[in-house]
Structure formats: structure tokens, C-alpha cells
TrEMBL record:
It comes from the Eukaryota. It comes from Linum tenue. One of its GO terms (molecular function) is nucleic acid binding. This is RNase H type-1 domain-containing protein. Gene3D superfamilies: Ribonuclease H-like superfamily/Ribonuclease H. InterPro entries: RNase_H-like_dom_plant (IPR044730), RNaseH-like_sf (IPR012337), RNaseH_domain (IPR002156), RNaseH_sf (IPR036397). It holds the Pfam family RVT_3. Residues 2-65 form the RNase H type-1 domain.
Amino acid sequence: MGYRHVRMDLDSRCAIQLIQGEDTADHQHAAVIDRFHELLRRDWDVKVSHIYREGNKSADYLASRGHKLDIGFHFVPVTDPALWFYLLYDIEGVSESRLVLNEG
């Protein structure tokens, strides 16, 4: 689509480490991780950062929904009422409290 600067916010520090790591050959999801590596090597600027799931409710909703689907590409229509709810939630900056015991 021609995007040159991409920001990828993930709520899993483990996923970020796997995506930014090099040695994943023995990992059970090596094929998926390698695909991420291929995408990151393209001619664009990608910033990968950690965000708590409460900071991006629409992404959390899509991830939760994705766990119930078979592996592969799935299209979620923008008309999905729950997705609209969470998008508005994110746009309005509604926040929730969260106790974080260990940042390490």
C-alpha cells in the first residue's frame, strides 16, 4: 500500500524478543517468526514497541478473536460492531488501571 513508516505495537514482550531475535530455527513457530523477519527486512522503517493490551483495545479484541480461528489470513469487516466499539474506545483514549508488579 506504499507505507514507508510503520509502527507495530505488541502487548507481548516475548513476541517482540522473538521478532527482533535471530536464532529461531528450533522454535515451534519458526515459520511465522521467519515471515516477520522477511517483512522487517523490506525497504521501510518499522518501529516495534511494547504496549499494554489496555492501551489498544481494538488490537486486543482482534487477537482474542484470532485465537478462535484456524491459522491463516482472515478478513474482519469494518462493520463488525464489537470492533467499532473498541476503535471508538481507543480513539477517545479511555483508560483502565492495571497493576504491574515486574517490568523486567
